[in-house]
Write a structure and sequence with these properties.
Elements (H helix, E strand, L loop, with lengths): L2 H28 L3 E4 L5 E4 L6 E3 L4 H6 L9 E5 L1 H5 L1 H10 L8 E3 L8 H6 L4 E5 H4 L2 H12 L4 E4 L5 H15 L3 H23 L8 E6 L7 E4 L6 H5 L3 E2 L9 E4 L1 H7 L3 E6 L11 E2 L3 H11 L9 H4 L3 E5 L8 H12 L9 H11 L7 E2 L1 E3 L3
Parallel strand pairs: 3-4, 3-6, 4-5, 6-7, 8-10, 8-12, 12-14
Antiparallel strand pairs: 1-2, 8-9, 9-11, 13-15, 14-16
Helix pairs in contact: 8-9, 9-14, 14-15
């Protein structure tokens, strides 16, 4: 073969490769400006791929870390609620991405703490907010302000209707940050596990299931908050159980008395909490040792309003990280709740295995700690 023929072949191969790649290049270039619909149905126009993002809640850094290898590099500013409530997560991000220490704080994650002056100084090209922020009057004012100074705002929902909206909004973030395939893979990871739970529940002919009380931050001083039928409460019905707070409280649940809990007398009791026993003696979540989570749960159910319950007497007592209601990791909570509510149906479901796969395939920073626990193995 002559040198000239080799050159011609090399040129033709390069040209063919360029032609083959042209549609992808065209699609990437034509993406911007990008028009999307966010979690509350707003049409949002984003002029270019975001490189300076304000996070109205720090918990959305976890969502970004599931689809982006360096989510901290995207930040122009963020709220400090995740650092305050779950400092182990912050420390894990800081160790891998030291630049997080220099990212300015713009508020406390509760919308009322948003510093308009700081936000204006950051030259951000996008802001992300959580559903609970968009639900408040102060949150809506913050959104209006940001948009008035040219910063588009996208709202994502991992809390109110998580089983439906989590894969949808992860795909949305994939489009926005040009991480489509990673977001699609995560959405399918989520949907496959959700479909398995639904299929097993649908296969039973039982007319009812065990009565379940999900108790947020149980305390004999502050009282209890029974979780209703939205958010984490969705997981009870998904697993084939009946929610003790389904009929007589608002959709999100509400504060309840000791008499309410004793009268409900659930078959299964699930407490939620956070690391260090914030608001409650129960400590669970990022950085918590499994033995400490189990021990603190055991101490919690010795309280006078819990000790007499049927669920406690029969050993059907469990605990869950409360902030599953703020991040796309909620499919792990769904699997854990399913194994507790209907162990007869979900004996082969292993949320620990799902967490290991999630860490291996998606997490830029490993998700470590005791995110759920039980008093009986």
């Amino acid at each position: 073969m002559t040198r000239s023929s080799m050159t011609r072949r090399g040129f033709l191969a390069a040209a063919a490769s360029a032609v083959a790649g042209a549609p992808y290049l065209a699609r990437a270039q034509s993406r911007w400006p990008l028009t999307v619909t966010d979690a509350i149905g707003r049409t949002v126009i984003i002029q270019k791929r975001p490189e300076a993002v304000i996070l109205g809640t720090g918990f959305n850094l976890i969502a970004l870390s599931l689809i982006h290898p360096d989510p901290v590099s995207l930040l122009a500013g963020w709220a400090n609620d995740m650092k305050g409530d779950n400092p182990f997560i912050y420390e894990a991000f800081r160790k891998k991405f030291p630049a997080i220490e220099t990212v300015p704080y713009v508020g406390n994650g509760q919308a009322d703490g948003l510093s308009f002056e700081t936000a204006l100084s950051l030259n951000a090209d996008l802001a992300m907010m959580g559903m609970w922020q968009a639900d408040s009057e102060l949150g809506r004012r913050a959104m209006q302000y940001l948009e008035s100074v040219g910063v588009p705002v996208v709202v994502v929902d991992f809390s109110r209707d998580p089983l439906r909206t989590t894969p949808r909004d992860m795909r949305l973030l994939g489009r926005i940050f040009e991480r489509d395939q990673q977001a699609e893979d995560f959405a399918r990871f989520f949907e496959t596990r959700l479909a398995r739970i639904k299929a097993k529940t649908a296969s039973t002919t039982d007319s009812g299931g065990p009565l379940v009380l999900m108790d947020a931050y149980p305390s004999d001083v502050r009282g209890s908050w029974a979780i209703g039928r939205t958010g984490l409460g969705e997981l009870i019905v998904l697993a084939g159980g009946r929610n003790a707070a389904d009929k007589n409280l608002p959709p999100q649940g509400g504060p309840v008395t000791a008499e309410y809990i004793l009268a409900a007398d659930p078959d299964v009791y699930i407490a939620t909490g956070s690391p260090g026993g914030t608001y409650t003696a129960f400590s669970v979540g990022p950085g918590v040792d499994p033995s400490e989570a189990r021990r603190s749960l055991g101490e919690t159910v010795k309280m006078p309003n819990l000790a007499p319950l049927k669920a406690v007497r029969e050993g059907r007592v469990h605990g869950l990280w409360n902030f599953f209601n703020a991040v796309p990791l909620n499919i792990l909570a769904a699997e854990a709740v399913a194994t507790w509510v209907r162990p007869d149906l979900f004996g082969d479901v292993d949320p620990a295995s799902s967490l290991a796969e999630l860490n291996d395939r998606f997490a830029a920073v490993p998700i470590e700690g005791a995110y759920w626990t039980s008093l009986k193995a």
